[in-house]
Write a structure and sequence with these properties.
With 227 residues, the protein is an alpha/beta fold. The chain has two domains: 5-18 and 90-224, HAD superfamily/HAD-like (Rossmann fold), CATH 3.40.50.1000; 21-84. 46% of the residues lie in helices and 13% in strands. It has helices at 21-34, 39-42, 50-60, 68-84, 95-104, 118-126, 146-161, 177-186, 200-205, 218-224; strands spanning 5-9, 16-17, 90-91, 108-113, 137-138, 170-174, 189-193, 210-212. Helix 9 links the parallel strand 7 (189-193) and strand 8 (210-212). The radius of gyration is 18 Å and the shape is globular.
Length: 227
């Protein structure tokens, strides 16, 4: 198998919708462990990555770094419970067929690119039966930006498949302006989708390589990634 294409996927608003379950689980975690109410909203949080959000909450409430493993373990359990009770969570249109086609192709592979912690990302996807499509990913476990996580994932993929990916054969499918900017920063192809919280006009103003209102027209989406 000669993998030549890497397709990065954002999670929330691109692959799935699960509302604000991540934030709910985070707030509940800090309340159950430390009796802190609305930790996410009430703390001095900087940066988009979950590791930076956690760090901001912990600093705001003088919680030592040695508590982080306990917090993450509890967060996973709470997130599993929150997701299990969310009857409105759903996989977005076209996603299963696209993931299967890319996964079973001899020339391409799926990868995640998210600000979520790895454990949070996989908990969300496993709750909807999508986790097995992803053995690669860039996650929010380290401080920085999404493109930093992407660089690390590209290096991992190149080692795994003993290849060097041409930047025009790496794609990022996402629902936000940040995803378009991330793709531009990396020099890869951006595919914007209007199933998240950003309106189509704002997405198009940032000139993605491709735009789809949703991913239901799988034939056209696959054409955009040359499959």
């Amino acid at each position: 198998m000669s993998i030549q294409k890497l397709v990065f996927w954002d999670i929330d608003g691109t692959l799935i919708h699960c509302g604000s379950d991540g934030r709910k689980a985070l707030n509940r975690t800090f309340y159950e462990l430390y009796n802190i109410e609305n930790a996410f909203e009430s703390s001095d949080i900087g940066g988009a990555m979950d590791s930076m959000i956690l760090s901001g909450i912990m600093k705001s409430h003088s919680i030592g770094e040695d508590q982080l493993p306990k917090i993450v373990r509890h967060y996973q359990k709470v997130l599993e419970d929150v997701l299990a009770n969310n009857k409105e969570k759903r996989i977005l249109p076209g996603v299963p067929e696209l993931l299967k086609t890319i996964h079973h192709s001899n020339s391409s592979e799926n990868a995640l690119l998210t600000s979520n912690l790895r454990i949070g990302a996989m908990t969300k996807l496993n709750s909807m039966g999508l986790g097995d499509f992803f053995k690669l990913g860039g996650f929010g476990d380290e401080p920085g930006e999404k493109w930093d996580a992407a660089y690390a994932c590209i290096r991992e993929a190149e080692e795994m498949y003993d290849t060097v990916f041409s930047r025009d054969q790496i794609f990022l499918i996402g629902d936000s302006v940040y995803d378009i900017e991330c793709a531009a920063k990396l020099g890869i192809k951006s595919i914007a989708v209007g199933t998240g919280w950003t309106d189509a006009e704002s997405l198009l103003a940032h000139k993605p390589d491709h735009f789809f209102p949703d991913l239901s027209d799988t034939k056209e989406v696959l054409k955009a990634i040359d499959l």
